[in-house]
């Protein structure tokens, strides 16, 4: 099972993820896209990555605003898998 990150390790990871904040046992990022179809395109790309890595974010869809929340449920908190998925989500959003 993936190892839980310490508070210090999470804080250090967040210095490399400026769009993300810690919300308890999760990392969260909200992003506003140009349109609802573009938001859904982002969701679909993230879904492909999530399936291939077997690590799935919670995704809140409100018109063209998406909120991603990452946590490793099996470990009961934040692990490197969440940091890695946050980086991948940034890659999808920044590609637009
Ligand atoms: C069996 C399979 O590995 C698990 O159910 C996966 C699927 N996706 C997951 N996603 C997240 N975010 N946390 C998990 O613990 C998790 N577990």
Automatic annotation (TrEMBL):
InterPro entries: PCD_sf, Pterin_deHydtase. It comes from the Bacteria. Keywords: Lyase. The keyword Protease does not apply. SUPFAM superfamilies: PCD-like. It is an enzyme of class 4 (lyase). One of its GO terms (biological process) is tetrahydrobiopterin biosynthetic process. Gene3D superfamilies: Transcriptional coactivator/pterin dehydratase (3.30.1360.20). It catalyses: (4aS,6R)-4a-hydroxy-L-erythro-5,6,7,8-tetrahydrobiopterin = (6R)-L-erythro-6,7-dihydrobiopterin + H2O. GO terms for molecular function: 4-alpha-hydroxytetrahydrobiopterin dehydratase activity. Its EC number is 4.2.1.96. Belongs to the pterin-4-alpha-carbinolamine dehydratase family. PANTHER family: PTERIN-4-ALPHA-CARBINOLAMINE DEHYDRATASE (PTHR12599:SF0). This is Putative pterin-4-alpha-carbinolamine dehydratase.
């Amino acid at each position: 099972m993936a190892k839980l990150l310490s508070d210090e390790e999470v804080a250090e990871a967040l210095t490399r993820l400026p769009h993300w904040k810690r919300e308890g046992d999760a990392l969260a990022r909200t992003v506003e896209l140009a349109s609802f179809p573009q938001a859904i395109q982002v969701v679909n790309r993230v879904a492909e990555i999530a399936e291939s890595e077997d690590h799935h974010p919670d995704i809140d869809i409100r018109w063209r605003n998406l909120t991603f929340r990452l946590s490793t449920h099996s470990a009961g908190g934040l692990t490197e898998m969440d940091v890695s998925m946050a980086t991948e989500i940034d890659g999808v959003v920044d590609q637009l």
